[in-house]
Amino acid sequence: MLEELTKLYDGYVDGYREPDGTLPKLMRLKRIHTGFVVKNAELIADGEKFDAETREAALVAALLHDTGRYEQLKLYNTFRDSDSVDHAVFSHDIVKEKGWLDALVSDTRKRDAILNAVLYHNRRDIPEGLDKLTEVCSHTVRDADKLDIFRVLEDQVEHTDWKSDSRAFWNLAISAPPNPVVVDCIEKRMPVAYQDITSLADFVLIQVGWMLSGLHYQTSRRICRERDHLEFRRNFLHQLTDDPSIDKLCDLACSALS
Description:
mainly alpha; 13 helices; about 65% helix
């Protein structure tokens, strides 16, 4: 099923190619991201020893989780949901409208679990009282997505002129300290409001906050440690600001990952 859905998905993405066959840069970034999210979901499924049905559903949800990003960028020229649309809702609605799962997934419970995992993947918390398959798929996609968002930030910092074109970082202020409200929310494991994210330091610290309290599976925390994602952010944040909250929050995250 995953192979068939990947073909349908890629056919959809091909519709956004330029006349010369290339995908716009940021759309190409999202398609690469999706491939890595699927690979991360595989690592989580294997590390947590999912059964075959759960593994397949979680991988399909990982493939489909950002389906709406292409249309979002086309319509609004941004990936920032607060300036456009909730991309998880957008993705859920597009997948449902396309009917891909109706054609390939006969089990209604499995189909609903995949769709709901797409819908919930960017929320602060998933709803309570979900059935087990939906819960596992949701946590897997959320962890796998975060793990690759870590990679994306590192790739942007190391291989792009992000100071000149910072759309991937929401065009946030670069040389600015973190918002104390953001620091306080992360320290208290509370959600951060979009309007409080005012600097690139805030953007990066939110990812430190994910390491502090946002990775559900032990396998995800292990992968994060092995890839040195926290130390990269600590070092990068020190390039942006000398605010003392950086080391405080990074030290808390280090303890949470161990």
